[in-house]
Amino acid sequence: MPITKPEHRKTQKKYDFDKELNPTNMTLKIIILYLILGILWILLSDWIVNLMLGEAGNTQIVQSVKGVFYIFATAGVFYFVIRRSIQIYAMALSDLKYAFSELDLSHQISLELDEKLYKLAYYDALTGLPNKVLLENTINQYITDHPRDGLIGFVYFDIDEFSNINEVKGHSIGDDLIKQILSTLHLEIKEPNMLARMGGDEFVLAIFGIEKLDQFMPLVESLVKLIRKTYVLEEDEFFVTFSVGVALYPDHGKDYITLLRHADAAQSIAKAKGRDQIVIFDDEMVTMIRQQTELLNQLRRAIENKEFSLHYQPIINLHDDQPSGVEALIRWQHPIKGFIPPLEFISLSEKNGYIKEISQWVFKEIAAQYEAWTIQGKAFRISINISPVMLMSEIFIPYVNEWISTYHLDSSTITLEITETAIIEDIQKSIHVLKQLKKLGFHIALDDFGTGYSSLTYLQKLPIDIIKIDRSFISTIKPNTEEFYVLRYMIELAHHLNLQVVAEGIETIEQAQMIKKYEVDFAQGYFFCRPMPQMRVIEYFKEISPK
């Protein structure tokens, strides 16, 4: 409770206590006053006695009375002088006590604030675990203290398909899952080892002072096994697995940043292998990282060097077997390495933020080639793949708005294709962005449908016009199998929701006949036409058009 000054101090006279309480000043004042009073009393009292009694009077008694009176008089004067000094002293003590109370309160508040700031700076708010800042400081300090004799196990892990759990159950339930996992794991972590949260569902376990490497991996495996299990979240059961990357100091890095990068690379390999795995960093990954770095540097110069081009794959209307549009696909022809598949550089550009420049190049190139498609009529549409990074960027909506205005494009002839992974991280924001695109007149297609965690749950929520069934789903379909009936259900459900259906990756006549039989609206794939430059596609259209 804050200490406040007493009310009477508001009207109290302010004193210069340094001056008033100076011992020398006070002593001189009292002595001078005493001398003045004494001299005055002696002179005046003797003069009065002589005046009243004259020479014949008995002055002995009078002098005694005078002395006694002087004692009482000076005692009274000293009483008031001393009382006044003590009052001033008491007021000074009171103010000093108040000042000390205020100082003590400020000190306590400062300590509490320092503790809060320390926790905010070095600890995770949700779990109370050390954050990445404290982890980095701890590891760097350990490396400084043990330049030659120390070993650190750097274990980087996250929850597989955690974004799906967040979407299905909500972020608060996702947070509860994180708390359950880490509370179980935290009990097994003993000092000086450290468990830290990097953010989201990403964590690092730092194991210090490893004595035997052959005991390290069994320890990691036992900890992962401990938390790899079924969790009950609001009466629903979820079997949770983890992708884990491991790096060792000093073999795989001699500082925190290198260890983190290498453990992250190992974890990426674990995910690429199908998740639910533990992968130790090795030299081959160093080569892979070096190659990716080299590729990224070359990628940054690809636009300037005019190494990109656009190919288009026709989309066939299965009702009349005529082309209804094309999908724009970027191609990279490296001057030395030759053709580099999009799968190799698109994901790399997304991780490093370069996808925005590539996306803008695609939009400008499509605009430059837009007029050549007008021969196909108003029903003809161009499909453009939108990266999740671009879709969630704050610049995306203003950019496409400016794009259609600058190049005088008809947005109703353009379909923007998004993947489920583009929307699953933040479904509400995704819906907001897609609604803005719909207002601008674009058609929206959900690409790679059938590969997601719970694709059917999105169909009623998303403002989309088309679903594109993924080629991996089509390629495994055989008549009278479970997948076959799932495909039929997906098509019927989409049509029930007034959505058009496009089947991707059609490569055989059997696949073409099957999807046509079950009333798929559109199809694309090598069976109809491979992706080609614009002029060759236009020539192909002329060849297959009715005479």
Give a verbal description of the structure.
The protein is an alpha/beta fold and 547 residues long. It has three domains: 7-122, no CATH class; 132-281, Alpha-Beta Plaits, CATH 3.30.70.270; 303-544, TIM Barrel. Helix content is 52%, strand content 17%. The protein has 19 helices and 16 strands. Strands 8-9-11-12-13-14-15-16 form an eight-stranded mixed beta barrel, surrounded by four helices. A five-stranded mixed β-sheet has the order 2-3-1-6-7, with helices on both faces. Strand 2 and strand 3 (202-208) form a beta hairpin. Helix 2 (23-53) packs antiparallel against helix 3 and helix 5 (162-169) crosses helix 6. It is elongated, with a radius of gyration of 43 Å. Mean pLDDT is 82; it is low at 1-15.
Describe the secondary-structure layout:
Blueprint: H1 17-20, H2 23-53, H3 59-122, H4 132-145, E1 152-159, H5 162-169, H6 171-186, E2 194-199, E3 202-208, H7 213-227, E4 230-233, E5 236-239, E6 242-249, H8 256-272, E7 278-280, H9 283-302, E8 308-317, E9 322-334, E10 338-340, H10 342-351, H11 355-369, E11 381-385, H12 388-391, H13 396-406, E12 414-419, H14 420-424, H15 427-439, E13 443-449, E14 466-469, H16 471-475, H17 482-496, E15 500-503, H18 509-517, E16 522-523, H19 534-544
Parallel strand pairs: 6-7, 9-11, 11-12, 12-13, 13-14, 14-15, 15-16
Antiparallel strand pairs: 1-3, 1-6, 2-3, 4-5, 8-9, 8-16, 9-10
Helix pairs in contact: 2-3, 5-6
